[in-house]
Amino acid sequence: MANSCTGLLSLSASALIVLLIVMEHLTRDSMASAMAVTKGNEETFEYFMFSQEWPYTFCTENEPSCNNTDKLVPIFNIHGLWPEKVKGDCQGEFNYSQLKPVESQLRKYWMDLLNPRGNPKDFWNHEYTKHGRCASVDSRFNSTLKYFQSALSIYLKYNVTQFLKSAGIVPGSTSYKASKIIEAVNSAFGYKPEIDCFAPGKKHGEKSKPAYLAELRICFSKDLTPRECESSGREVPQPRHSAHTLYYDPELPRSFHREAEANVYSPIKMSRSVKNLIASWIETERPTAVSERKRIWTSPCKDDEDVQLPEKLNY
Ligand SMILES: *[C@@H]1O[C@H](CO)[C@@H](O)[C@H](O)[C@H]1NC(C)=O
Ligand SMILES: *[C@@H]1O[C@H](CO)[C@@H](O)[C@H](O)[C@H]1NC(C)=O
Ligand SMILES: *[C@@H]1O[C@H](CO)[C@@H](O)[C@H](O)[C@H]1NC(C)=O
Ligand SMILES: *[C@@H]1O[C@H](CO)[C@@H](O)[C@H](O)[C@H]1NC(C)=O
């Protein structure tokens, strides 16, 4: 016993000597850069959140700019692959020419829903510049092509439209409990999704407004294997209770359009984002106190306790 311990000690002592000799030969600068590389690869971000949008809800949120609705198909569309908990630098530039080999697939699955007939290049550029660059220190994602290929491979391998379908959740005029949607993804994917939902405002005196499934977000480790999402900290409307029902509509929500046609106040017509929508709603309703405001904001897509307005939906 004593002997083997001594052996170990002398082994680690000689290892230490070797290390010291190596260190002596390294300059301060090269040590620093060696450490920076390690830091870059391991700590620049923790994991990916893969966000997919339901085209019809997205268009409803963004009318009137999303006007070519005949181009939409009832299949989840890629919104983005977002590095989460980014600590390092976001580097590099969007390089459209690299995307040639995957462009036809991207055009199909990563549409710019704001402009379904146009060139999605600007949207891809936005997503890469804002999110993709933050993964580029990792050599697995260090080019525009690698980043978009990663998103496509995830999309093709983990089909959330199919996950829902397998659990009997299909686009139509039925609404589904948020808990059922979450469970469907959980059982097919292994982890719960983050849900983003949308409820187009509620007038005084109204008890509730229908809520719509807007986005499903699932998370991945850097090796692109599934993992759980941590709280993203994004100020986006979330289903208040898992008991809430969400519509998963294969067309633009009808009730909403009836309201617009009836020439009732239509916040959607006036704004391009939920934030503006809410701002314009405040403007119109002029709540006098926070409690009043809170009452107005009580919506299926917002936590009762959380009276803060969404900061921005500019992701
Ligand atoms: C669709 O919306 C875009 C952006 O708002 C606008 O430029 C275009 O003229 C619209 N097209 C139609 C057919 O309304
Ligand atoms: C874009 O990528 C291609 C292929 O890797 C490369 O040849 C080209 O120089 C890049 N363009 C820019 C502006 O970096
Ligand atoms: C990306 O990483 C690969 C190693 O996988 C390396 O050969 C290549 O030079 C890197 N490209 C850039 C732009 O850093
Ligand atoms: C995903 O699943 C849906 C529903 O089954 C299907 O229509 C669609 O083609 C699938 N998408 C891909 C890329 O396989």
From TrEMBL:
Keywords: Disulfide bond, Signal. One of its GO terms (biological process) is RNA catabolic process. This is Uncharacterized protein. Transmembrane segments: none annotated. InterPro entries: Ribonuclease_T2_eukaryotic (IPR033697), RNase_T2-like (IPR001568), RNase_T2-like_sf (IPR036430), RNase_T2_His_AS_1 (IPR018188), RNase_T2_His_AS_2 (IPR033130). It holds the Pfam family Ribonuclease_T2. Gene3D superfamilies: Ribonuclease T2-like. Belongs to the RNase T2 family. The active site is at H79, E127, H131. PANTHER family: RIBONUCLEASE T2. GO terms for molecular function: ribonuclease T2 activity; RNA binding. GO terms for cellular component: extracellular region. Residues 1-32 form the signal peptide. It comes from the Eukaryota.
